[in-house]
Amino acid sequence: MRLRQVNRFLKDLRANPRLKAQKGRVLAAVAVAAALTATTICTSVYRTQSEENRRLAEEVLKLKASRAQLQYRMYEKDSREPLSGKPLVMSLITQAIKIESLDWDEDEVEAMASICWRESRYNPNGQNPVSTAFGLYQFLDSTWQYYEVEKTSDPLLQTVAAVRYIEDRYESPMQALEFHTQTHTVNGKLVHYY
């Protein structure tokens, strides 16, 4: 990947709101590609310099590439930690809101967390036994595809998809929670399918 291609890719990333959901992972991958590309560029630039200078330049660039790979691995590890309750879910919701550039207040974050609890008990691997509903927000396979997120056990990506869905369908988590309460209540009690 040439440096010009990396710059064009970063420009497209900023312009495409759907790619923002995977921005951390994508930028880390681009950093690795850019560092490896820089290694190739520096190798060709330093051909005329002494062997020692070339070796040092390559070592520096390899260190930068391994640092970028380490950052990518750290992002992967952080995004796959098991959910330990409401504070972590609230943090994921806040991150997803930032990724989608929305201006939701604390009540809306709380409503979103309530929906998550009702749907999956904060279990990112929750699977409905009688349908394809899966994850924190119990998305069906067709819903995952519509909101351009692959079916995943990554809680942040699940939350980004849920934020998109709620913004698109209900305009706010408060309205989504009200609808959820109306449609999931039987004889005055909430019904949970998971």
Q: What's the short version?
A:
The chain has 2 domains: 77 residues, no CATH class; 105 residues, Lysozyme (Orthogonal Bundle). 65% of the residues lie in helices and 2% in strands. The protein has 8 helices and 2 strands; from the N terminus they run ααααααααββ.
Give a written overview of the molecule.
This protein has a two-stranded antiparallel ribbon with strand order 1-2. With 194 residues, the chain is mostly helical. The protein has helices at 3-15, 23-45, 51-79, 86-99, 106-120, 141-146, 155-169, 173-183; strands spanning 185-186, 189-190. It has 8 helices and 2 strands; from the N terminus they run ααααααααββ. Helix 5 packs parallel to helix 8. Helices cover 65% and strands 2% of the residues. The protein folds into 2 domains: 3-79, no CATH class; 86-190, Lysozyme (Orthogonal Bundle), CATH 1.10.530.10.
